Amino acid sequence: MSQSSGSEVVDPTVVDTDVLSFWQKTDTRGAEYARILAGRTLIISFQTVAEQLRWAEERNWGDQRRRELEDFLKRFLVQPYSIDLAREWATLMASMGKAGNPMASGDGWIAATALLVGAPLATHNRRDFESIPSLTIISFAPPRSQA
Question: How many whole angstroms from its chain centre is CA 71?
Answer without folding.
Answer: 17
